[in-house]
Specification:
Helix 1 packs parallel to helix 4 and helix 3 crosses helix 5. The chain is of the alpha/beta class. Strands 3-2-1-4-5 form a five-stranded parallel beta sheet, with helices on both faces. The protein contains seven helices and five strands. The two termini are 21 Å apart.
Length: 176
């Protein structure tokens, strides 16, 4: 999130008046939004090599992805302001759940409402369909989604995307 993106998100954030019922949420993607996998992609010629799910899983299991600092700053500001931050990732809960939680914690992403990961039931769906279904569930629970932050259009497209979306650049890969 570049300086201009931080300014835009803060201007928007300052316009929101929270009703105080604890149901105001922001959605964040995890990979290449909360933390960066650039060190993995450096080994893969920055996205020039074909996607290697086994190699990525091995990398993610190490839990060494560094935080993207401007996103961490926004995340912390949202928590301090009273928003519920919900993390939604395409990572597999069964194999990467513990490593992802630890990586997030070690990089300073603490205090979020919940981390939602792919389960066997939703693995067959595209990222857009999966993330739309999760956001729909969040809205049906009574949350108001004020913002949605991701590095892929599939993080942001579909219904229930929130009042405002923030797309981070990612030149290394595309998730349909």
């Amino acid at each position: 999130m570049a300086a201009d993106g931080r300014k835009l998100s803060r201007v928007y954030l300052n316009e929101i008046v929270l009703p105080g019922d604890g149901m105001d949420a922001w959605i964040f993607d995890v990979d290449d939004t909360c933390f960066s996998n650039v060190f993995y992609y450096r080994l893969k010629r920055y996205g020039c090599d074909p996607y290697d799910p086994t190699g990525f899983r091995s990398w993610a299991m190490k839990g060494e992805s560094p935080a993207i600092q401007p996103v961490l700053e926004l995340f912390n500001e949202l928590i301090e302001t009273g928003f519920k931050v919900i993390l939604v990732t395409g990572r597999d809960e069964e194999t990467l759940g513990q490593a992802t939680q630890e990586n997030l914690h070690n990089q300073g992403f603490t205090g979020y409402e919940r981390l939602i990961m792919r389960t066997p039931e939703n693995k067959k769906h595209s990222a857009t369909i999966y993330k739309t279904a999760i956001r729909k569930q969040v809205v049906e629970e009574g949350y108001r989604i004020w913002g949605n932050v991701g590095d892929q259009w599939s993080d942001l497209q579909g219904e229930y995307s929130g009042n405002r979306t923030f797309k981070l650049p990612n030149p290394m890969y595309f998730v349909p």
